[in-house]
Amino acid sequence: VIATWENEAAVAAARQRLLDGGTALDAVEAAARVPEADPENFTVGYGGLPDRDGEVTLDACIMNEKGDAGSVTFLKNIKHPVSVARKIMEETPHVMLSGAGALQFALANGFEKTDLLTPEANARWEEWLVEKEYKPAVNIERHDTIGVLAIDDKGRISGACTTSGMAFKMHGRVGDSPIIGAGLYVDGEIGGACATGLGELVMTTLGSFLIVELMRRGLSPQEACEEGIRRIVERYKDKYDYDEFQVGYIAINKEGEHGAYSVVEGFNYTLYQKEKTSVVEAGNMI
Ligand code: GLY
Question: 15 CA distance to ligand 1 centroid (A)?
């Protein structure tokens, strides 16, 4: 199991699910649900920072080794968007539901309506309202979108990705996290990849798909993550100041090898492999 950032509790939940006989898909869903329920995590689920209008809107997706995928975007008032995404994958003919339709689907399927804006997140929003200046910042509190990948004892690979998106984003903004191929991609014959950081740059380079395709062509997960970051840096070097944003990737392949890399210093990930959990600093390009 590998997850973006320091997420030992999420990785422990995935490990437990695997030990209980769950699939890789069960494991990644269990992992994503941990930060989604954590009010102290300001970038995911319940307690996530709101958009500039004070509304918490969530994006998430999930994908298995067969290429089945489910996704929700712009979902309000539901604590576990990853589980809604899984339901969409398993019980509808669609991949993605958005906004009011996603909420309607969630409520019809037994998910409870919850106020996701905690007093702490509301206080930060009110603080932001004083200046109303939107400036993305790198590695805010060393966490951001939670992406998780797992491979189980039958060699099945799955992934999940969940986020409240950029803090104080424009109302209606959707990032990379629910976009299959951008925030997450899995090919059961090759491996999987996940992204965290400034979604606009991941969406426009289709980063996770790119990394899996590079692995298909023979690159290791580490080499593929480095190439994914290099593409972003090359393409956007004149448009963005690299002091002001971060993108990080994690990847695994079918052989159980892993890789991680980011644009600037400060990205880390949590790995559970061979009965050991560790938090590891990823390398960076700039
Ligand atoms: N990577 C999360 C976002 O940009 O929304």
Answer: 26
Catalytic residue status for 145: yes
Nearest CA to ligand 1 atom 4: 199
* Catalytic, out of 145, 163, 196, 270: 145
Rounded to 5 degrees, what are φ and ψ at 87?
A: -65, -40
CA 149–ligand 1 middle distance (angstroms): 17
Share of the chain above pLDDT 90, in %: 91
Helices (H), the chain: 8-19, 24-36, 81-91, 99-108, 119-131, 199-203, 207-216, 221-236
Rounded average pLDDT over 70-95: 98
Alpha-carbon distance of 156 to 177, in angstroms, equals: 22
pTM of the model: 0.96
Look at the alpha carbons of 101, 107, 109, 112 in this order and tell me if their dihedral is positive or negative. Answer: positive
Q: pLDDT tens digits, residue range 214-247?
A: 999 999 999 999 999 999 999 998 888 777 789 9
Q: What does the alpha-carbon distance between residue 264 and residue 241 come to, in Å, rounded to a whole number? A: 11
Q: Is 175 in the pocket of ligand 1 (CB under 6 A)?
A: yes
